[in-house]
Amino acid sequence: MQSKDRHDLPATGSAKGVAIDLGIGAGAAFLGLLAWLVTGARLPLQNLWATGTLPDDMPLVLLPFSQYALGLIVSVIVAGSAIAGAVARVLRARKRPRGVPAIAAGAVIVYLVALVQTWVSVSAGLLPGTASVVYLAALVGGTVAAIVLGVVVLLLIARAPAPGLAVGVTIVAIVIGASMNGVVLPFGLSVIEPQELARGFAQWIPAIGVGVALAWSGFGTVGRALAAAGSLLLLWLGPAAFTAIAAAAGTRVLAGYPTEMAEFAGQVFVSLLGSPRESLVQVAIAIVTMLVALVAFRVIRNRRALDAAS
């Protein structure tokens, strides 16, 4: 009997650990969704809504299903996944066999619940017809893709060595601008001066974050150098691609013409890359931040070495 009891204790502890990890993932996902929930969580007005409805009478949803809010959907999911990955790394969950998978599962469960709840609410109010089916399928498919991207980010931040972590932070940085925009300027609200100033500052947070991450990762190996170059390339191309896709998806007149929509997205992408302010400035700020952070980290290490020697 005593032998059986000793055998059961680890299993019980393991089950409790998995439950805690699931809760960590779910809590992190909820924190990511807050960028949308703080706006009141009312479904944005829909072009294909069956009845005339005031904004305050739209149903409550856990995700902002709208072709005009694709960036916010991706951002809240990736932000929550990044939080989950960071917590997993700090708690060293990767050293437990089921730690990181359980945290990832907790986050995915929350996202799937949010997706299904929003899907059901939106489908109940849309006009019948092919256009509504295609519209809803595109939003559901895009959300699923965002969840997959979120899992990739979570795993990179939670488990990857320094180069992979830098790439994960860069991916988060590319979409964090839209997430910050959802916090400082809630979806559907008019701009007031303090919020506009906050949004203006928030647009530089991605470059600063990437610069600090690259300085922390360093360039001591080929892998780290390649990760740094890839991160800067992503920081240059990613925001332009993100904006181009959102702009094309939000152009109502192109909704029934996927080829023309893709062409328009390509034109916006090329235009943004050709504008130094929209592309290279982010990279330049990241490089400057990286250099400053490298100096700061070196000073900190030297001081610690002197303190240890004394």
UniProtKB/TrEMBL annotation:
Record field: transmembrane: 20-45, 65-88, 100-120, 132-158, 165-189, 201-219, 226-249, 280-300
UniProtKB keywords: Membrane, Transmembrane, Transmembrane helix
Keyword Transmembrane helix: yes
Protein's UniProt name: Uncharacterized protein
UniProt organism field: Conyzicola nivalis
